[in-house]
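Our consortium's second objective concerns turning raw sequence data into structural hypotheses that experimental partners can test. To show how far this objective has progressed, the report includes one record in full. It was chosen at random from the queue rather than selected for favorable results. The single chain below, 352 residues long, was entered without modification.
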Amino acid sequence: MKIKITGIGSYIPEKEIDNTDFSEHVFLNEDGSPFAYPNEVVINKFKGITGIDKRRYAEDNYTASDLAFFASQKAIENAGIDPETLDYIIFAHNFGDVKYGTTQSDIIPSLATRVKHKLQIKNPKCVAYDILFGCPGWIEGVLQANAFIKSGMAKKCLVIGAETLSRVVDAHDRDSMIYSDGAGASVIEASEDEAGMLSYESATYAADEANFLFFGKSYNPELDPDTKYIKMYGRKIYEFALSQVPAAMKSCLDNSGIAIGDVKKILIHQANEKMDEAIIHRFYKLYGQTPPKNVMPMSIHELGNSSVATVPTLFDLIIRGEIEDQEINKGDVIIFASVGAGMNINAFVYRY
């Protein structure tokens, strides 16, 4: 028995933020000093590295659980199931519900419980809970659904990844341009055919790597130091990802019994275009090969980095034919992979 994604859906906010919208920002160095070059140079360098030209921010009256609800409705409709038959709702996020204009996180009740309430599911045996696993959270939720279903504890699970990172960024940190908002959701069920998950890999590196992503004060010394924002050591994350993610992907693929030449698509967390390209090249190099054309679809150019939402959203966009020159056909083998705060890495090999 395998587990299969029987429904997929996403919610992409309508508020579009272009790189030029940051032209009047006051970007500062970590010590609070101003940059020695104008914002135009900062923005051009940023786009050259990350590939991001635009990103989406949640509408002011919505929170992460709202975005998740919208994506979940689509996934449930796509799967054609009665939501009352769901056994688990697994919600991956990082900062909970953060209302517009604040940075305070609200996670009581759990966001999964809020989605269950919004879906009007009355079945008390539909268990709803959240997971905090950084950007790889949606994939980890799928792995947990796999365990629940294979153990006989569940038949149907709803796995969600949603985040509103725009509300926890330091406007004086140029890294704030990376982050965006969005939601992706999936219905996971047992599969008796050839489709479904073939293998998986998951790991947490917390010796020297635990605090590569963290909550820290603004670079503006005039702001309250007790108000915290998402921060990262970008170079350390880049080096960590390149040294660890390709090996994890190779281990996962080798355990599946699938040959590298049979992999049709790699759906990797949309964190940074240059980093993702380097990961894929190193992965194929482990097999003495170079990546085939169009093997790695990208959505980061238009949507930015929405953390846990990037992978399910990318999958949904491809399935709906929304990514140019990209398609997934029945029988295709896909690798899903992610890396993020923790530091966490995970992947699974999947036959569509």
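The partners drew two points from this record. The radius of gyration is 20 Å. The mean pLDDT is 95. Both points have been shared with the crystallography group to help prioritize constructs.
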